[in-house]
Amino acid sequence: MNEFSYIFLFFLATSMLLKLWLNRRQMIHIIQHRDEVPEDFKGKIDLEAHQKAADYTLEKTKMASLSTIIGSAILVMLTLGGIINTLLSVTQSSIESDIWSGVVLIMSVFILSHLVELPIDVYQTFKIEQKFGFNRTTPSQFIKDQFLQITLMLVIGTPLLYALLHVMGQMGEYWWLYAWLLTVSFTFFMTWLVPTVIAPLFNKFTPLENEELESRIQKLFQRCGFKSKGIYVMDGSKRSGHGNAYFTGIGNNKRIVFYDTLIESLNTDEIEAVLAHELGHFKCKHVTKHMIVSTFTTLLGFALLGWLKEESWFFDGLGMMQINDAIALLLFILVLPIFTTFLQPISSRFQRKFEFEADAFASTMANPEHLIQALVKLYRENASTLTPDPVYSSFHHSHPPASVRIEHLRSLSGPSS
Ligand SMILES: [Zn+2]
After folding, report:
1. What's the pLDDT tens digit per position in 23-39?
2. 125 near 142, Cβ under 8 Å?
3. Could you list which residues have their CB under 5 Å from ion ligand 1?
4. Scanning 20, 104, 129, 378, which has the fewest C-beta atoms within 10 Å of its C-beta?
5. CA quadruple 307, 313, 315, 317: dihedral sign
6. What is the residue-wise DSSP string for 274-305?
7. How does strand 231-234 pair with strand 245-248?
8. How far is the CA of 285 from the centre of ligand 1 (A)?
9. What's the 281 CA to ligand 1 centre distance in angstroms?
10. What is the pLDDT of residues 145-193, one digit of tens each?
């Protein structure tokens, strides 16, 4: 232990307490507004649906608090509690190559943390989601998903980790610049690969085929200047009753995805409006902007790691018996989030700005009233709360609260055509 140990514990405790405090605020706010549907939604969402959303959000928030406490405990046990030291001595005594023992160490910590959090995941899926009528995952589907996730973690993570540890050990003083280039290229590659290769391992994606929609979509695409034919319907109903739509991928792999559950509940006008919103993300280059920001923050991250890797107080402070590249990388990945928790409102703010921009774009290409109707349906079907605590929301929500978003849409003028 040294002074950095106390700094680490202080930030860990503060970030944990901050998250618990936000969750508490959220719960109190929701309970206070549970008995009345907010003015803007009267007649669109009934009291029963409003109270279901409140109860559902309360249960999920309680689980999130538990998960925060467990996560913090795991972090202390891994570092100051000596688990990483033990794992390291096991891997080093059984694997000769430094790089490979490093890869195995990092992977085993990731898989271990994943397994420790598994009971929460099980409870969330089979208790909470089940109780509110959302769960459609069978136990065998759940187990299959777990295997697939861990396999993917190994298949994708192993070569990346191997390459990173190789660069850290071999590329001299400026290794972090090479590591940054490697990571950024890998991220671009994955963003391109995920929609067509990884996501289809979990779900079936079929091109949206609907004659009534076809011509309206083509006209919408022409108005927006969007070339891709990629509108897909995903069988989200295989696992859950929740619905959504999203824009994903880059280059020739970019696509818009609707959950089948959402498509079922929206009419043609509403689908067109949601599509216009997703095209707004494309038109406003939100994926590109997001990638530029993450490229820059990754550079900052590696520069910081480049410095920390040479500082013995960093390793001593976190209870390490040895100093090596794999430990430096692992500690950095584990510990960084407790310091960046406090920056969360900044990233939420940017994401909300993007949502407002996409809404503004959508309202010039489709009727904003139709987007409002679709949003109300989305909130109702997903039992999302209409009354989040504003402070909680500014930390955790990438989308503005429903009432704020609808007010913004109302303030925009309708389509010119
Ligand atoms: Zn959006």
Report:
1. 999 999 999 999 999 98
2. yes
3. 355, 358
4. 20
5. negative
6. HHHHHHHHHHTTHHHHHHHHHHHHHHHHHHHH
7. unpaired
8. 12
9. 7
10. 999 999 999 999 999 999 999 999 999 999 999 999 999 999 999 988 9
